[in-house]
Amino acid sequence: MTDIVFYEKPGCGGNARQRALLEAAGHTLQRRNLLTAPWTRDSLLPFLAPLPVAQWFNRAAPRVKRGEVVPEALDAEAALALLLAEPLLIRRPLMQRPDGARLVGFDLAEVAAFVGLSPADPATAGPALAGALEGCAAAPGAKPCPSPSPSH
């Protein structure tokens, strides 16, 4: 199986479900805190550059949800500066394989191709599970992920 560097938000239930799926499939994760990683333009841009700018952002981030940050209104330079200043805005998880390949987010089909999960495997199949793996979908009655500070 694959050894994956997995950048996550500590305490995020969505990231916990994503980790559990990858680990159940036999992958080893090197967990890293997305919020405190020493991001630079050169370390973050290789994850993001293949995607449209709007897909760089965590849609569940409070500033995005409140409309203070509108990803579609930003060019790449402005977006990158904002993400470096506020890592909570970065779409997660970020994953990197030993060969240097990178992935942003947890679209089940993309993750399956990235690390070799089988779409036919009952653990990875089904629209309900797929929806629970991308973003911050919380179970009914569950508490939302902790925020690092009230201003974010």
From TrEMBL:
InterPro entries: Arsenate_reductase-like, Nase-assoc, Thioredoxin-like_sf. It comes from the Bacteria. Pfam families: ArsC. PROSITE patterns: ARSC. PANTHER family: ARSENATE REDUCTASE, PROTEIN YFFB. Belongs to the ArsC family. NCBIfam families: nitro_assoc. This is ArsC/Spx/MgsR family protein.
